[in-house]
Design brief:
Blueprint: E1 3-8, E2 17-21, E3 27-30, H1 38-43, H2 58-64, H3 96-99, E4 103-108, H4 114-117, H5 120-126, H6 138-148, E5 152-159, H7 165-180, E6 183-188, H8 189-195, E7 202-205, E8 209-215, E9 221-227, H9 230-246, E10 248-249, H10 250-260
Parallel strand pairs: 4-5, 5-6
Antiparallel strand pairs: 1-2, 2-3, 4-7, 6-10, 7-8, 8-9
Helix pairs in contact: 6-7, 7-10
C-alpha cells in the first residue's frame, strides 16, 4: 500500500494530516485519538477491538479532501472508480429543484443559451414585450411554490459590456422570474474576472451539492457533473458569496444598461 501525502493543518510536524491510498483512493487520517469526553465514546456504535477513533478538524477535509470523491458511497453522477463524475443528462437532476431544503443558487456565465433562442419568449422579446409572473410557466409556478415555503432560489448572471442579444433577452425575461419569487442579480464580466469567479455554469443546492454544466460551442447543454466533494463545494460557496455581494438586482441593472446606450 502506497500513501500519498495530501496536506495538513498542523504546525511543527504535529497532526492532523491527510493521506491518500494511491492504489484505492481511500483516505487515511492522522490525528489525535478520541478519548474524552466519555459521553462521546459511549455514543460510538458497533466498535470492534481493532478500531480506534481520531478527531478530524473540519478545515482539514475542507481544504484537502480530493475532489470528486466522498467516503462511504458513490455519489450520483460519480464514476465507478470514484474519480471524475460521469456526465449525465440535465433531466436526471431536476428533482433537486424540489428536493432542496433551503437554497438553490445558480451562476450563469454564457453569452447566450440555445434553449433561450428556441423559446417562444424569444419572439416576444424581439417584439419588445414585457415579462411578468406567468402561472402557466412550470418554472415560475415552481419558484413561487418553493419560495412560499421559505426556500430561496437565486442566481447571478454575468453580462458583457455591451451585453449580447442573449444577455439582453435574459435581462428582459428575468423580470418574470423575479416576480415569481426568484432573486436574480447581474454582474459585469470584467468585475467577475477581478473577483476570480468561475468561468462555467453551475447550480449549488443547500451549500453541499454542485451541479456543473458542460456547454458546447453552440450554447447547447451537453450534460452535467454532480459534485459533492468538500473542495468543490467550498469553492462554489465562496463564488456565491462574492457574486451576491457585488451583483446588482435585475431591474436596477437593466436601468444601468438602458442609460448606457
Amino acid at each position: 500500500m502506497t500513501l500519498r501525502f495530501i496536506g495538513t493543518t498542523s504546525e511543527h510536524g504535529n497532526c492532523p494530516t491527510l493521506y491518500e491510498v494511491v492504489e484505492t483512493g481511500d483516505l487515511v487520517v492522522q490525528g489525535g485519538r478520541l478519548t474524552d469526553p466519555p459521553e462521546h465514546l459511549a455514543q460510538l456504535q458497533d466498535v470492534k477491538d481493532s478500531e480506534t477513533f481520531v478527531v478530524v478538524p473540519r478545515e482539514l477535509l475542507t481544504r484537502f479532501a480530493p475532489p470528486g470523491r466522498r467516503a462511504g458511497r458513490r455519489d450520483a453522477g460519480e464514476g465507478v472508480d470514484g474519480g471524475v463524475p460521469d456526465l449525465i443528462p440535465f433531466d436526471e437532476i431536476t428533482h433537486l429543484f424540489t428536493d432542496f431544503e433551503h437554497t438553490a443558487w445558480r451562476l450563469e456565465t454564457q453569452r447566450g443559451y440555445a434553449t433561450e433562442r428556441d423559446s417562444p419568449n424569444w419572439a416576444r422579446f424581439q417584439n419588445g414585450e414585457t415579462f411578468e409572473y406567468d402561472p402557466a410557466s412550470p418554472w415560475h409556478a415552481g419558484v413561487r411554490k418553493q419560495t412560499e415555503e421559505g426556500k430561496r432560489i437565486e442566481r447571478v448572471r454575468l453580462v458583457d459590456d455591451p451585453p449580447t442579444e442573449g444577455q439582453r433577452f435574459l435581462l428582459a425575461t428575468g423580470l418574470g422570474n423575479v416576480a415569481a419569487g426568484e432573486d436574480i442579480r447581474n454582474l459585469w464580466r470584467a468585475d467577475a474576472a477581478r473577483l476570480g469567479l468561475p468561468d462555467f455554469d453551475f447550480w449549488l443546492f443547500d451549500s453541499r451539492t454542485v451541479v456543473k454544466f458542460v456547454i458546447d460551442e453552440n450554447d447547447v447543454t451537453v450534460g452535467v457533473h454532480v459534485l459533492e466533494d468538500a473542495e468543490t463545494v467550498v469553492r462554489a460557496c465562496q463564488a456565491r458569496d462574492a457574486a451576491l455581494h457585488f451583483a446588482v438586482p435585475t431591474r436596477e441593472f437593466q436601468a444601468q444598461v438602458a442609460s448606457a446606450r
